[in-house]
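Predict fold of Aldose 1-epimerase; 333 aa.
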Amino acid sequence: MIEVKTFGEKAKLYCLENKNGMQVTLTDFGARVVGVFLPVEEGGGLRNVSLAAKSDEDYRKTDLYPGSSIVPVAGRISGAQAEIKGTSYQFTENEPGRTLHGGVDTANEQYWDVELDHERNQVTFGIVLKDGFNGFPGDVRVKAIYCLTDKNELTVDYQAVSDKDTIFNPTNHIYFNLTGDFQRSVAEHRIKIAANHYAPLGEDNLPTGVLEDVTGTPFDFRDFAPFAQGFDSQYPQNVLVKGYDHPWLLEEVDIPVEVLSPDGKIGLSVKTNQPAVVIYTYNYPVEELATFHGGFSLECQALPNACNQDGFGSILLEQGEEFLSKTTYRFTW
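Predicted 3D structure, encoded as tokens:
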């Protein structure tokens, strides 16, 4: 049975639990993950490894992104514009000369419709992004589907269909710290990514359009290595963003991104059908929530700014076409 609670002034909190005692809490405010609770503390106590605020109002006051569904387009769009099948569209700027995570007052600040499936332990959130909202064409019907399984997996699916040609590249913005202490740096978390190339950034924090070999750089995580290898380096790309805020091009979708806690006792593996993962290490913290480098996100998506970069693939969603992305977060302890 999915338990429903109040979560601030308007929002609801949906509480899922599996047979192993793992719990996940979700809210309709931004179709977001609030908590991921693992029964790893002494006596079976729960540890929340997902960065969370206490209510919808607290997200508004502090940081709107943690755990939220980012639609229609994750990441930055250069010039706050794109051409879609020969027509140029101008989007709302929320950074100088750029659109970040879909613009202003977007879906992560809205209250989504909710459908509960108690038998599947699944919550489906839905929203319609209206034609012209923040400049994006089409009435786009979006679903964010969360399911907690008895294999200790949290699955996150995004579905969408538009009544006009548009662009669409969603992601989820969960921040993790496997120690459960977001006042502690994730520097000693070890990560492994089956990726030979990453996308370096320019001074505007947009990918330059080049994919660089990770060999010999702090971006080589083909074997387990700590985030500290970038945090402690003077490599220009790490200095630029004070850590990591970069896309890696995944070699094979069947090979998960893997993360281990500093003591090696808790593991997170992430599988996706998307071609890239953007890793952000909370380099510009909201201190009420977490310290500098107090969390990391694994944002599974197409390469950012693909709509304006040749060779980055297509994020075109044609009229009537059905979009589906699938990401699975699996926890071990």
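Residues 232 and 243 are 9 Å apart (CA to CA).
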